[in-house]
Design a protein that fits this description.
The chain has 916 residues and is an alpha+beta fold. It folds into 4 domains: 475 residues, no CATH class; 119 residues, no CATH class; 126 residues, Immunoglobulin-like, CATH 2.60.40; 138 residues, Galactose-binding domain-like (Jelly Rolls). Helix content is 44%, strand content 18%. The strands form 10 sheets. Strands 16-19-25-22-23 form a 5-stranded antiparallel beta sheet, with no helix packed on it. It has a 5-stranded antiparallel beta sheet with strand order 28-29-35-31-32, with no helix packed on it. Strands 7-8-10-9 form a 4-stranded mixed beta sheet.
Length: 916
């Protein structure tokens, strides 16, 4: 190997099979050097956050789903999953993560008992193919073997890759697809076959629509810049010829992917994601962002998903991009354009699909840096004095900038190490070229210089990775689960209590309390129906339902999380019969849920609470309210109405024979005095509260304490707006805060995320806190309101709502049971049953609304309607109605037909191109 390495390091040969073999050896050295520590510490690549809740869980469940299909293909693929939140389309939910990733299907080669091993092996395999794709790109660009090997190391082990090995493994895929797309464009621009480009578009469109959007923009930029470098200013007709070829090739690849791309994108367009204000309302980034662009170029840190962490060798490349801009051509032009895009949030927003200005597109920059580094390495013995002098000058200037920035952010070894490595690399280049000018270097000297330079580059990359993972650096390895524990962690979510619940034909769900933050997607693995889901693509109608009722725990990607703030009717309405939680959370059980001793009697820290008032899965209503009237109610009144009837538009369902709801809802507001017992920490002013120290609080003292007895108590903040007390122009003061309300044993908190938390940010102008049921012996009269951050909290109003015990509530639930759909079949493809009514009605279900569910009543197709702000309903005539719901992913058939058209187009293209 050393002989082969020597030949490939100092002779600028074409890339051959030997080059790929050498890359494999160097790759294994880097993998062992970086990740052997995970083996020693018995740590996995599974991040305790999204890795546990999403990436591995979805990988595991999807493999199980495919294996079940192969075991019995006659059952067909399950396109709907009742254990995912309240039920979700599998294509929409999993399409973002695993369905189009070709590496996932290699997991089928592993036995089920080795799924965790498969997860890790496939991550490392992705890394290997990322490097291989770069080598193929270098071969297309006719880069010599030695430089290509160096560039492949820099590309494969750039910080974006190191970060996502443990953070978001599916984020690695665009690093693989981008070189393939560039190869495809190169072939088109050189009048070769367009097949590579079509296949690369097909694969990237299938893999992930989010990154496919970025890849589409990036490859367009690449193609335009590369065209003008190759051809200069030609005629418009010449330019349009290549534009046309690229566009129709792109469209063929996209249409080929339609069987996945169309239904997945269709699901995204109906998801809970909200674009929000363009660029999050930012004209420029915070000052911290701009210095991070300088500070993080060679270190394993990021800000707003601007990920650099290149090898220090890139610092020596910088002056060459200008001094030899004709030679480096499109690399210089592309990097210059990217530098401009990085400066303004508007560009970041455009690159992020017009959402918040996260710069996740920076995965593309390493390709140009690594290609330039490969070219520089190939000319390492041909540098002129002014060139290596310029490198030294850039090194000195950058070192000075880092020293100045460290005066603000503080000293870290990781900031200085790249300067040391860059200095070593420069000394090697300086010495080699000085010696070369005196006397031509011998074969052995070239080998030694080349080998030392490669080793320093690899050590530099390894050090950066270790700084990110290891305890002496950022210690991110501590955020990973111990290897071999993940499956047991899923099964111990409720200490196995869910397995002991009674099994019957009644369709109901399992809930949690507001204190159970750890429960996200585990119901999928436990194969239980619940409410919680934690996915990048969630049903937008369920999100709307949660927002209408103003559940305080709402998040865009977790619409029904944390037990719906322990609200009784909401949990009952959603069919939650049992709540599983730890004993210490008993005080947070919604009113009406009582601990079931017979189900909780075991040596466990968990309890089971049950209610008799959970609503049926589907039931007929004869009382209704229009959406216009419903939305005029406050969130507590909205929740109360759900126990009376159905919300429906007259245009969608015939309400002629229904009864319009016109009863008063018993929601009262109580008078109180808002005071501060510690003016040093907090003060009350007109329409605002001033918090002078962190966690300052005020108190709401109710005028009549007896008014809280035998009631559910809510605290409602309206028109809330926070202005921090300090503003640091250099580091920026976050706008996030937590509001906490306490009454008796209950303490509730709602988090307002920072405006720069683009993925989770929503403006919470209103906050509703459910403080639970106060019995007749309650003497509580003081409600505390605490804010975590110092500043001014403008408030239009604070209302203390009380809801008296409702004597008729159980009777209304019983009526729904009498009018329920008697379910005869319940699968992930079909729900069927019958109901008999003496008058016309609206059947309301807790099936999340989607066009994929089709309905028949007495054998006739009936259009489903949207009811109750987020669910499927059906108009029913009087008499017995045999109802059947069947599911098929929306747009799947359309997508399949388009893929067939794409296949035909690909064949026609092949014939045409051969003739061409």
């Amino acid at each position: 190997m050393l002989k082969d390495l020597g030949e490939n390091l100092f002779e600028e040969k074409k890339i051959t099979k030997r080059t790929f073999a050498l890359f494999t050896g160097l790759f294994l050295i880097m993998i062992v050097g970086i990740y052997s520590y995970f083996v020693v510490m018995q740590k996995s690549f599974i991040w305790q956050g999204d890795g546990f809740s999403q990436h591995y869980l979805i990988f595991k469940d999807y493999l199980a789903l495919i294996k079940d299909y192969f075991a019995d293909p006659s059952v067909g693929l399950p396109f709907w999953d009742w254990t995912n939140g309240m039920g979700a389309d599998v294509l929409s939910a999993y399409g973002y993560y695993v369905i189009g990733d070709p590496f996932v299907y290699l997991g089928l080669l592993f036995p089920t008992s080795m799924t965790e091993l498969a997860f890790h092996v496939l991550i490392l395999l992705r890394l290997y193919f990322i490097g291989m794709a770069f080598l193929f790109y270098c071969r297309e660009m006719q880069v010599g073997s030695s430089g290509a090997l160096v560039g492949s190391m820099m590309y494969t082990f750039t910080f974006y890759v190191i970060l996502n090995v443990t953070r978001h493994p599916f984020f690695l895929m665009p690093m693989l697809f981008f070189p393939l797309l560039c190869i495809g464009i190169e072939k088109i621009l050189h009048n070769k076959s367009n097949t590579v480009f079509i296949v690369a578009i097909f694969l990237s469109a299938c893999s992930n629509f989010y990154f496919f959007y970025m890849l589409s923009v990036l490859i367009f930029i690449y193609a335009v810049i590369r065209y003008f470098q190759l051809y200069g200013k030609k005629t418009i007709r010449h330019f349009l010829t290549y534009v046309w070829t690229s566009i129709y090739s792109y469209l063929i690849g996209l249409v080929l992917s339609s069987v996945l791309f169309v239904p997945i994108v269709g699901g995204f367009l109906q998801s809970s994601r909200e674009p929000g204000e363009f660029a999050s309302g930012l004209l420029i980034y915070p000052t911290k962002y701009y210095w991070s662009l300088i500070l993080n170029v060679f270190v394993s840190e990021r800000y707003l998903w601007t990920v650099f962490g290149f090898s220090s060798f890139a610092l020596l490349l910088l002056p060459m991009l200008w001094m030899k801009r004709k030679e480096f051509g499109f690399i210089s032009g592309s990097l210059a354009l990217f530098a401009v895009i990085l400066l303004l949030p508007a560009f970041g927003s455009i690159m992020n699909g017009f959402a918040g200005p996260y710069n996740r597109w920076t995965f593309a920059i390493p390709l140009f840096i690594s290609l330039g580094a490969a070219m520089l390495f190939n000319s390492r013995f041909k540098l002129k004095k002014k060139e290596y002098s310029a490198m030294g000058a850039v090194l000195l200037v950058y070192s000075g900038a880092i020293v100045l920035i460290m005066q603000v952010v503080g000293f870290k070894t990781a900031y200085v190490a790249p300067l040391i490595f860059a200095g070593m690399m420069w000394l090697l280049l300086f010495s080699a070229n000085r010696q070369q000018t005196r006397k031509p270097l011998t074969r052995r000297s070239k080998w030694l210089y080349s080998a030392f330079l490669l080793v320093v580059i690899m050590v530099d990359l390894g050090f950066s990775a270790m700084d990110y993972y290891y305890p002496w650096g950022q210690n991110k390895i501590e955020l990973s689960l111990d290897y071999g524990t993940v499956d047991e962690n899923y099964l111990s979510t409720f200490d196995g209590l869910e397995q002991e619940l009674p099994q019957n034909q009644d369709i109901s769900r399992i809930g949690v309390t507001s204190k159970d933050n750890h429960v996200k997607n585990q119901m999928i693995i436990l194969e239980e129906m619940g409410l919680n889901s934690y996915l990048s693509v969630s049903n937008g109608f369920i999100s709307n339902f949660a927002q209408q009722l103003e559940t305080g725990q709402f998040q865009l990607i977790q619409p029904l999380r944390n037990g719906f703030d322990d609200r009784q009717i909401a949990n009952n309405f959603l069919g939650v019969r049992y709540i599983l939680t730890e004993k210490e959370n008993e005080a947070y059980l919604p009113y009406g849920y009582e601990v079931a001793e017979d189900l909780s009697d075991k040596s466990s820290s968990f309890i089971v609470a049950e209610t008799k008032n959970y609503f049926p899965f589907a039931y007929a209503n004869t009382t209704y309210l229009t959406y216009e009237s419903f939305r005029q109610l406050n969130p507590i009144e909205k929740e109360q109405f759900l126990s009376y009837g159905v919300i429906v538009e007259s245009e969608e369902g015939d309400t002629t024979d229904l009864t319009l709801f016109d009863q008063p809802l018993e929601v009262k507001s109580e008078d109180y005095q808002l005071v501060s017992n510690d003016p040093i920490k907090a003060s009350v002013e007109e329409e605002k509260i001033i918090i002078k120290e962190s966690n300052g609080k005020v108190e709401l003292i109710v005028d009549d304490p007896t008014a809280l007895q035998n009631t559910e108590v809510y605290v409602y903040l309206e028109g809330l707006d926070f202005t921090p007390s300090t503003s640091d122009p250099l580091t920026r003061t976050p706008t996030s805060f937590t509001a906490k309300v306490a009454l008796g044993e209950r303490k509730k908190a709602i988090r307002q995320s920072d405006v720069l938390s683009f993925s989770s940010y929503i403006k919470r102008s209103e906050m509703l806190f459910n403080m639970g049921y106060q019995d007749e012996n309650s003497k509580e009269k003081t409600i505390s309101l605490q804010f975590s951050e110092a500043g001014e909290y403008a408030l239009e109003d604070i209302t203390v709502f009380v809801v008296p015990k409702d004597a008729g509530y159980s009777a209304r639930v019983a009526e729904k049971r009498a009018n329920q759909l008697n379910i005869e079949q319940f699968t992930n493809k079909m729900v069927s049953g019958s109901v008999t009514m003496t008058e016309s009605s609206i059947l309301s279900t807790t099936i999340p609304y989607t066009e994929g569910w089709k309905a028949e009543v007495n054998g006739k197709k009936v259009e489903t309607i949207l009811v109750n702000e987020g669910f499927i309903g059906l108009p029913l005539e009087s008499g017995t109605s045999a109802v059947t719901f069947t599911y098929q992913p929306p747009f799947l058939i359309v997508g399949a037909w388009l893929s067939l058209v794409g296949t035909i187009a690909l064949a026609v293209n092949h014939v045409f191109w051969n003739k061409h």
